[in-house]
Automatic annotation (TrEMBL), chains A, B:
It comes from Branchiostoma belcheri (Amphioxus). The gene is LOC109483969. One of its GO terms (cellular component) is mitochondrion. It catalyses: (S)-3-amino-2-methylpropanoate + 2-oxoglutarate = 2-methyl-3-oxopropanoate + L-glutamate; 4-aminobutanoate + 2-oxoglutarate = succinate semialdehyde + L-glutamate. Catalyzes the conversion of gamma-aminobutyrate and L-beta-aminoisobutyrate to succinate semialdehyde and methylmalonate semialdehyde, respectively. Can also convert delta-aminovalerate and beta-alanine. One of its GO terms (molecular function) is 4-aminobutyrate:2-oxoglutarate transaminase activity. One of its GO terms (biological process) is gamma-aminobutyric acid catabolic process. This is 4-aminobutyrate aminotransferase, mitochondrial.
Amino acid sequence: MVFDPWSVVTVLFFCHAAIPAFKNRIISRCCCRIALIRRMSGCIAHMTVLKQLIPRSNSVWKPAVRCVSQSAHRKLLPDDYDYDGPHLVTQVPGPRSKMLLESLDSIQNTEAVQFFCDFKKSRGNWLVDADGNRLLDVYSQIASLPLGYNHPAIVSALADESNLSAFANRPALGVLPPVDFPDTLQKLLSRVAPPGLSQVQTMACGTCANENAFKAVFFWYRAKQRGSLIHTEEELESCMRHEAPGSPNLSILGFKGGFHGRTIGCSSSSHAAPLHKVDVPALDWPSAPFPATKYPLDVNTQENRQEEERCLDKVFQLMQEYKNKGRPVAGVVVEPIQSEGGDRHASNNFFRQLRKLAKENGSAFVVDEVQTGAGLTGKMWAHEYWGLEESPDIVTFSKKMVIGGLYFKEEFRPKGPFRIMNTWLGDPAKLVIMEAVLNVIHKDRLLDNMTETGQVILQGLEKLQDKHADILSNARGRGAFCAVDFPDTLTRDRAVATLRNKGVQGAGCGVKSLRVRPALIFQPHHARMFLDIMEETTRELKSLGT
Amino acid sequence: MVFDPWSVVTVLFFCHAAIPAFKNRIISRCCCRIALIRRMSGCIAHMTVLKQLIPRSNSVWKPAVRCVSQSAHRKLLPDDYDYDGPHLVTQVPGPRSKMLLESLDSIQNTEAVQFFCDFKKSRGNWLVDADGNRLLDVYSQIASLPLGYNHPAIVSALADESNLSAFANRPALGVLPPVDFPDTLQKLLSRVAPPGLSQVQTMACGTCANENAFKAVFFWYRAKQRGSLIHTEEELESCMRHEAPGSPNLSILGFKGGFHGRTIGCSSSSHAAPLHKVDVPALDWPSAPFPATKYPLDVNTQENRQEEERCLDKVFQLMQEYKNKGRPVAGVVVEPIQSEGGDRHASNNFFRQLRKLAKENGSAFVVDEVQTGAGLTGKMWAHEYWGLEESPDIVTFSKKMVIGGLYFKEEFRPKGPFRIMNTWLGDPAKLVIMEAVLNVIHKDRLLDNMTETGQVILQGLEKLQDKHADILSNARGRGAFCAVDFPDTLTRDRAVATLRNKGVQGAGCGVKSLRVRPALIFQPHHARMFLDIMEETTRELKSLGT
């Protein structure tokens, strides 16, 4: 049997116009046929008509006009996951968000809350808030949502009964792992491992990933110093008094502007903002300047090279200084792009030199890919752009990877039981979702999508800054991991609020930057919507005399 | 229409005996009716016959004889979640576990792995391993599984479509919480809050809960010292160089034998075992002796009181010492029962005095209930036994609470945005499971169950140690949170291995203790099975001349 989509449209149209009382019933019966027709017809434009006839209880759906009808693009999601634009019915945050904020504020600090989200109604790149506003999301929950909202592949993995047990029984992975754990790790994490790193350890979040990366560095460094894997009695006894040699005076070198988390170890290696650090005791660990490069990097090569050399010299000096004061640099930790610190980029050569410097100093080289990893830059791992002669020693991940963890070289594998350990060590439930995510990244070529979309974003931002040089500067990016600067913090914060009330959910980073961190399903047509609203926002800021 | 269960049994019996070829088909058709009959008849004994007729693909089910038929007890789980005893088909770990271990070992250290678990086949208190061995679980995944394996209430919450969105969209809770978040926190976490603590902050795990509790303590202490909530320019600037006053010289006082996690801050407050600490840099934080009490506590009151006073004096001295050296004790952290450190108990009076001492010194009083909380001791929070005049300032939780976090007084609420923060700040998916758990705890009176079962365990262990005083000593417990000592580490480790191969999954803690940490659905009849196998194990250890 073959359906003629046009005849169904005609029938539905008449039902809609002439017999309202029977409309819903007839439409409901027709729905399954319509679904079939959608797949069969391939005639996307006609489906817009059908869609408008189908009643939706939720007002957010009503003004929807699918994007696909207006510009052709690669189809990554079902039709009803996309729209021609944002839809605003109140200010953001609206009255319902404000009411919920008051309620939440009675039991915890809410000063960082932007608004409340209705995740049941959110789809793809579109975040719906508590008041029914639909925003184009270029922030993806602090860069942590890989496939946007309610991706069909994730929903389908959750509905699969064979995955139920992973959600119902959270194991202590380090002592009693599930039968499918070795296979799952190999199939998922080893498949996307950074080149050269054969070992992997899951963790619950990025902070624990970094804290444990540092521990692996200290274990490795002390074993080198000691010349043995076996601890001495003196070490085992002195560590209980927090004295050397058991509690060694070792350090991790971080960078000014770097960010690796907010626990005491992570915070001691981070220097992105005083409010992350003030009041919290810190370890005496060195921080080197990160190159204050000029953008575009490839235009300002000579000047940037000098600046990068200055920073590398300072790294070298700090290594000597901390060695001399008996607190040698056991490891260097760096982000491929300083993210919280304000989207600060350096050249591939800078990172190659830094890697060499770490090696020459006998320090481990740890790359924190918590925010840059999992494809947003157009490669699975941002450090793959560097062309390193020798791979990093440890790469940490979380956010868009769904689960936290660290990849590492075999020589960084801890010796003895219970050295890198906590109760859960991650969560197999998150591996179920990660499997769906990695399959979609592969099947839908989302790394290519990020490269392609990133070009649209970056070129768009560059054009905007040419037109509005008094407001915008330093457009920069790798893949869709992009940013642009405003003149100061106040203007940037105004821009974020204005964007939000024009239907774009973005966020700041550093002192005066706007960061773009969409989900991996963010496409060129979304980028163009974002750029249009950026331009409107810029004009509005200018008209207000900002 | 009314079913007569006996007639169905008769029909099934004839089918089973006479027409094997049609058996499965008929049984399959009857299954839905049988389910109905089960609910209707209430005639549990007859169902055993039905159950034996239903073919199961998994051999683990075959030798099952429901426990209910043999001893009457309160029914907490469906019939097919319980058995008369363990079922062993290989050594544990068996050949399949060993094969899986080899595979996992190629990508990470596996020295702490005991065996691999088949969570799909595990039910209630019964853990099934990769080789089909069925063990009575008194360890519950390092004390972290609240309702055992595949509890129907959890399975049902997972199957509920209205919960799907919480699993498909993990939000950044601190900036973009879901619409139901305030209500969920109030309905769940506030409902079971420790008395006096109105505020709550979720976290992903116990380690992050403790690290952030310490941060909240430092914020509060510095605001007191400064006499203002506003940071000075000097603080904001000096913290970036890791210098006072921005990076203050403050300390957390922990106890020898205490354990609060393995990140650098947590590790600096923990003193349970050298292998947790060696090679990792530590902060100069004091550790006081924890009372080496004699058991039973209520028999050795005089001697214990002296020991406790000695420890309290030492706490006082350390507070003075650290004040004098410019590193004052901003907070004291203590577990109600030292868990990893070897199940060490102190009297209620000790904790009341400690709380007073903290208050008098101007230090915050933090109670780490990560392992003791959520009902195992017979109360929701173990510190409720103490009869404190003033509640703790902060109580941390994780493990059986499904999600990590901290309860705290309003005065410990951080001021300003982004002070207690990370990307996820917990996980609404875990709150869905927690809701099911808290409902079951309430509906099935599981706190009472822990008190009742705990009495059976403790009295049983006391009897055993009376009979085998050369092997067992120091039986102790609160609710079902129990332990007993062996003469030394070697014998304890042998006991754990022997128990496992007799069908009990337990674990050690401290130097020579065996800890009992069942799920909240562990009942007196399970306790008796455990005690029988403990006795067998003890006899075997003695016969081997241990």
